[in-house]
Amino acid sequence: MYNYIIFDIDGTILDTEIAVLSSLQKLLNEELNKNFSFEELRFALGIPGEVTLNKLGITNLLESNEKWNKYLKEYFHHVKIFDDIKDTLDRLKEMGISTGIVTSKTKEEFINDFVPFELINYFNLVVCADDTEKHKPNPEPILKFIELSGADKSKTIYIGDTKYDMDCAFSAGIDFALALWGAKSSIGINANYILENPKQILELTKA
């Protein structure tokens, strides 16, 4: 069915929620002298850091984003690859299915946060936040990926964990599968497929 699988990173390949939100809490407590709950900050999962900080009323965006990334390292021990992701990527590679990444991480964040997990060789192409002017939920990141890869939209699917991911995929004219292992809920998300386990991705490649 699909011969090109595009992945989001946070909440799809890597379980980063505790690290991302804990480090954001620390930053906001310092910058705004306010304590935010995880629930109040969950909207930040899936969009670029500077967009998140802007929405929260932070004005020194560049400096604060750098500080957030520094604090993220303090919580990095919480980050892990979701169960069954590596086995699934191994199987997709064996099957000759092309895989790529479209992420809201900048190139620097991608190098610092993703490359250490030694998964980069599974992916043919990566589009980061600084590769496009507009970001998820705008379709530009996926359209950039399609342009660079030459992938057939009708045979390409994006796998992510947020409504931002779904909107990006649908606006770009490709299908979307919800990674329920990261999303934890499908409320408000009208995905083509709802996947409870990464191994179900393999079913998407069958005619």
UniProtKB/TrEMBL annotation:
GO molecular function: phosphoglycolate phosphatase activity
Parts forming coiled coils: none
Biological processes, Gene Ontology terms: DNA repair
A cellular component term, taken from the record's GO annotations: cytosol
InterPro entries: HAD-like_hydrolase_sf (IPR050155), HAD-like_sf (IPR036412), HAD-SF_hydro_IA (IPR006439), HAD_2 (IPR041492), HAD_sf (IPR023214), PGP-like_dom2 (IPR023198)
Protein name stated in the entry: Haloacid dehalogenase superfamily, subfamily IA, variant 1 with third motif having Dx(3-4)D or Dx(3-4)E
Source organism of the structure: Clostridium uliginosum
Species classification: Bacteria, Bacillati, Bacillota, Clostridia, Eubacteriales
